[in-house]
Amino acid sequence: MSTALKIRIILDSEEADIFRDIVVGPEENLSHLAQVVIASFDIDAGEISSFYLSDENWEQGEEIPMMDMGMSEEPTLDMEKVIIGSALGNPGQRLLFVYDFIAMWTFYVESIEPAELDEGMELPYVSLTVGDAPDTAPKKNFEGEAGKTKGMFDDAFGSNMFEDEDEDYGTF
Predict the structure, then answer these.
(1) For 117-164, what is each residue's pLDDT tens digit?
(2) Cα separation of 122 and 3, whole Å?
(3) How many CB atoms lie within 10 A of CB 96?
(4) Is residue 88 a contact partner of residue 29, using CB atoms and an 8 Å limit?
(5) Which residues contact 20 (CB under 8 A, 6 or more apart)?
(6) Which residues, other chains included, contact 18 with Cβ-Cβ below 8 Å and sequence gap of 6+?
(7) What is the rounded average pLDDT for all residues in the chain?
(8) What whole-number distance in Å separates Cα of residue 46 and Cα of residue 39?
(9) Positive or negative: CA dihedral 136, 108, 87, 104
(10) What is the pLDDT of residue 160?
């Protein structure tokens, strides 16, 4: 018998509980896991995606993109370099996965437990399916406080960036 990892993948959806438990080899990389997630939810492949480190509260941490974009002289993480067993090798370890940055398919990824494989079993496989995946990504609510629509870059700049009354920034 050999050991694999059972990982729960939950689609971020308010309409229904939709998740898959998948069993994968711990020696595979996150690029492989991304392909398994996409296939297990029957989503068309070919879009950009990223994993994000996450804590017990599902707070988004450091990005692990599909590939190293070469924007830093320092070595950076990417899906090809990160092994599933190092990112999700212990029960309770979590990642967020975002697929297709236009549609914003968002998944909560959590290691559940080690899985024993019988001789001849092939990986990966889906061990549990709950709910039907929708044809399109569930809509996201991007509203901030008091019903105001939160802008994409609201947290990137100070809240008073455009409040200087002496300057005329023109119209957009």
Answers:
(1) 888 889 999 999 999 999 999 987 655 554 444 444 455 444 444 444
(2) 12
(3) 20
(4) no
(5) 8, 9, 37, 40, 41, 126, 128, 129, 130
(6) 10, 11, 41, 130, 131, 132, 133, 134
(7) 84
(8) 11
(9) positive
(10) 46
